[in-house]
Amino acid sequence: MSTGSKAIPLLKSAPEPDQLADRLNGGDWKGIEIALMPQHLADDGALARAVESTRDVVAGMVVTAEAPVAWPSGAFVRVDRLDDEARAGIERSAEFAAQVGSPVLTIHLFVPLSPDEFRSSDAVDAAAVEEFLGFYADACLCRGVAPLIENVPPVLRMRTGGVFLSPIGGHWRDLVEWRERVPELGFTIDTSHAALFRSFATVYPGLFVHPWDEELELSRYVEELGPDTEVAHVSDAHGLLGEGLPYGSGELELDPVVRRLGELVPFIVAEINEPDPARSVEMKRAYTAIERALALPPTDTKPVRRRVPADSFDWQQVLERRDPVPSVL
Predict the structure, then answer these.
(1) Alpha helices in the chain (DSSP H)
(2) pTM for the predicted model, two decimal places
(3) How many CA atoms lie within 13 A of 226 on its CB side?
(4) Which helix (H) or strand (E) holds 242?
(5) If we measure between CA atoms, which residue out of 34, 67, 68 comes closest to residue 51?
(6) What is the pLDDT of residues 2-19, one digit of tens each?
(7) What residues pair up with 63 in beta bridges, in sequence order?
């Protein structure tokens, strides 16, 4: 969406007192995104404690919320699986967002599969995905929260250090197509995820069905998704697995991207994967860099030259099997 005013930079934290104290120390920070973890949705008591921990320290700040990538049982969130645990998790996530004053809730558009599961998987069950996303949208909207879906990287680590792949959610077209089915949905753009998806598709153009081409430039994600986007997650990226890197340490020219996002998106989160989640040194540097970039005059974004050349040969068709290239990972 067009912001009509200057975008607001945000830090990021789990709703844990030690993390929140670290994030809010040392500056006049304007906003913070709260990322729920499975334990925060275990029951109503856990949810109440997460709400209380957040409310105690964020008064006067802009707050946004993000659903976890796994449910309390350890089962991964999958947008094609709306079982009882998923229903409870969605409702508690939406309730958390409403209780802490977040205008939005983000959930990842993915179906995490192991390499073996990915190889043998059939087409995504569109009816199941539509049921999940419809329930998610309703749970948010009835609480006054805007439901957002986020693009995902080609290789999902799922905060476990594992290797998983999703047949949907990497290409910006996936988000657009699901918004057409569930029009109440908005978007969260992740710069690192988009860059990694492009890098992977450059090497394996047929793996995720979509062919590699200029559609996967980060600037194209911004322009295609931006008008319906409420949140941007900003970090750098490198190669195939370098996700959530410190601002300016990877392959992306982030300043012009952030400047353009500032014209479209109201909330821009410095989403840096810190070595120690209890400390936010690089996150705060990224926050400052985002503030600086937002103040720059508009410029055209330039495509990033990749070191790995594009390969249009679809060797999966020759082998007559779908291979999630585990040897590369």
Answers:
(1) 17-24, 44-55, 84-100, 115-120, 126-141, 172-181, 191-203, 218-225, 254-264, 281-294, 315-319
(2) 0.89
(3) 21
(4) strand 242-245
(5) 34
(6) 454 589 999 999 999 999
(7) 32
